[in-house]
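Entry:
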Amino acid sequence: MFKRFNAYIVGYYGMHNTGDDALLYSARWASHHLLSSQNNLVSSATDTKCQEFGNIKAIPNALFRGHQRLLHYKNALQSENIIFGGGSVLHTESDIQFKRHLIALAGRKQSRCTGVGLGPFTSVGAEKACAKFLSECGFIGLRDKQSYDMAKDLSPEANVELTFDLAPTMLCSQKNKLVEIERSGIMFNFCQQAIDAYGNTNNKIEFRRIQSAIEIIEKIWFETSEPIYIVDFNAHYCFGDFQIHRKIIDQLNENIPVTHIQYDPNPFRVLQRIAGFKASVCMRLHASIMSFMANTPSISINYHRKCKNWCEQIGMSGEYQFDALEVCSDSVANALKQCLGTEFIKPVMTTEGAIKASLLNWR
């Protein structure tokens, strides 16, 4: 069959999430520059207009049940291979089975899954489906050791490799180089955590976390007078950062100068902005990753296993890692003051090492 596209790049794209925007750019760049795929098609939930991406059209709205799935199948059938580009994309049975269908339509040998995390699986069926996916996909690059070990247990013969997150590949761009600028202020990023499968929030836990965030910001401002920047990395109407950030800002001491920066669809602008801060406090995984990429000293508030895995992977000092459910505002503030000074303990991994590891996804 005649193939219209070199690759169909699939991920959680067009969801107004800075982390996924970074993964999308990295996957497109690598496909074009490293795999010589000049004509790519991207799966996106919404239209994306970004100079660095080119314009991306969304998958059309469903006209009937299963319509969008059929459109994905059509795109896969017209593509020489599938690229699943980054993220926590292998944990539910239905989604994994869907990905298996795409591989079968495009061709197994040339398809690849890059910079992804495995699990936690939602059912035994999901785990079994993942084992089949691993054996069928041409190459799987796992972004963390835990995912890699899990993959080797599930499918010992699969072509899997321990790689890295895709985002540092952004630093390979020749058009969008970070510019050294004078640093000022501290970036904070928080996200909702205690949400069940139905989108309901555990109000007691969220209230406690909001109060802790307020205490941290007020302590560090009164002791350093550094400007405060609260940055949204996810603009989802329900699960995004805006809601929790507004609750924090509305309750802060009115004398504290705070700037709320809403979601920006251009990941390079976000990265350059982070490069202008003296330090950051991050809950979102890619807020931490992009802080590392920008050489901005960072505190990680770990709300998910993937955040802890990242900290371990780059060799972040344990002094800068905190469990989101057991945050001591005094400890975070003290660690943050260390980040602002000459006593900051740098991660073991360098940005050069991260780029090299990220490029393993495209061997």
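The chain has a mean pLDDT of 93.
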